[in-house]
Design brief:
The chain has 164 residues and is mainly alpha-helical. The chain folds into 2 domains: 47 residues; 79 residues. Helices cover 57% and strands 7% of the residues. It has a two-stranded antiparallel sheet with strand order 1-2. The longest helix is centred in the C-terminal third of the chain and has 34 residues. The chain is elongated and about 70 Å long.
Length: 164
């Protein structure tokens, strides 16, 4: 483990200590130690200039997770006027993205998706239907008079619109 990684590991440990601190004195000590350790990290950042990155995350859970990780590391997330909500901007050095930001983000995102998938499957099986399999794949070609738009306005057997 290099110096930078060891400093970051100490920061994570201090963050955990700060979260468990019960008195003002413990919190102040943890904060003082965190400031002492972040000083060398700032030198790493000054050695490599920050670059503006554009991150695109399609689902709101991944976006929230990513923004929380940026803020945890002292990076200000932003978005330009008229940019889509799924787009996030951050000024950060390449090494920070490659070493400290993206690896935990992808690992936590995979864990989050697995958890949400299990939760969704449980809710469906307990409240709606025990069958959570995908719909049947139909062989053949869709006719020219069939479109995805028609599928949205499908009718029930009694002729009423689906969903009404």
């Amino acid at each position: 483990m290099n110096d930078r990684e060891s400093l970051l590991e100490k920061l994570r440990t201090l963050a955990a200590l700060h979260a468990r601190a019960t008195t003002d004195g413990e919190r102040a000590a943890a904060e003082h130690a965190r400031q002492r350790i972040t000083a060398p990290l700032k030198r790493y950042d000054s050695a490599e200039p920050p670059v503006e990155y554009r991150f695109t995350l399609d689902n709101p859970w991944s976006r929230r997770l990513f923004v929380a990780l940026l803020r945890r590391d002292g990076i200000r997330p932003s978005r330009y006027h008229r940019q889509r909500v799924k787009t996030g901007m951050a000024r950060v050095s390449r090494s920070v993205v490659a070493d400290t930001l993206w690896p935990p983000c992808t690992a936590l995102d995979q864990a989050l998706h697995a958890h949400l998938d299990r939760l969704t499957a449980d809710m469906i099986t307990q409240g709606i239907s025990r069958d959570t399999s995908e719909g049947e794949e139909v062989r053949g070609v869709m006719r020219a008079d069939q479109s995805c738009g028609q599928a949205r306005s499908a009718r029930n057997q009694d002729g009423t619109r689906w969903g009404s």
